[in-house]
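Incident log, structure service

09:12 report received: a user says their structure output differs between two submissions of the same chain.
09:20 pulled the input from the user's history:
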Amino acid sequence: MESLVQKNAPTARITRFSTAVHMGCNLVSLGDERVVIPAANKRLIQACRAEGLTVYDPEFGMIDSGGGSLHCMCQALRRDPG
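09:34 re-ran on a clean worker, output below:
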């Protein structure tokens, strides 16, 4: 975290235990200032939108209950270089 702050990178602190338990910091970056965040992570969605990111927020309730979340479901993304 120190190095991110030193580089002036935007950060969002997760301060509630319940938020951490429910994968409150789980997201997938799509590039070009776009991220996917489970809809239940309201504080992270708000923080990312405040930074000017485009946020896609699908419902992941049934997947979260299985012990994983969005990032766990993804394989490496291959992005179009154009």
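09:41 both user submissions now match this output. Likely a transient worker issue. Closing.
09:42 reviewer note: The first helix runs from residue 2 to 6. Residues 2-73 form one domain.
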